[in-house]
Amino acid sequence: MAGDGAARSKLANRARREGDVATILEAHYPEYQYRVVQFLIEHLSDVSRTFKGDLQSSLVLAVIGQVWLNALKAPDGSYLDPAHLPPERLGTSATRISDVTGIPRQTVRRKLEVLEERGWIVRNPDCIYRLSSSDGETAARRDLSDLDARAILRFARLFTDLEKIVTAAGQEAHETGASASGKRA
């Protein structure tokens, strides 16, 4: 099938690009490491302040949010309306959250109670937890919009910083290759 070949080619190109970028970042490790760690410090500090020091609750909420987004993602890359999906597809269990995060199950259950009290998640009768939403917006997204806006700006800065490293290295390699081929002529 032609579509399968195109999809495999796309995956191969992506894997090759990821390998190239990883090689460049390894070669420029101090620059890369400084920028990534700076991002993590700023972001985790902001999250910690927003969650009043409770990073585990933010991690539990993040896992539930990822399950939600993954369930909404259509094969074409668009996102479906959560009202058209069964609630159990939009959530996950305390056990699964514990498995993913490494947080003990009892601690996860306590964090879920806090998130439920805040109105950010709901528990289905079968003990599946999902984001609380109305009118197409989750309560967590609404309440954490300031944090989200700061995170987007921080990530944009990290992306452009890393992009500069990768682009500069690519230009250096191109110039080095061009000057080496010019010497051979």
UniProtKB/TrEMBL annotation:
Gene3D superfamilies: Winged helix-like DNA-binding domain superfamily/Winged helix DNA-binding domain
Sequence ranges assigned to domain HTH iclR-type in this UniProt record: 91-125
Pfam family, any one: HTH_IclR
GO BP, one annotated term: regulation of DNA-templated transcription
InterPro entries the UniProt entry points to: Tscrpt_reg_IclR_N, WH-like_DNA-bd_sf, WH_DNA-bd_sf
GO MF entries: DNA binding
Protein name: HTH iclR-type domain-containing protein
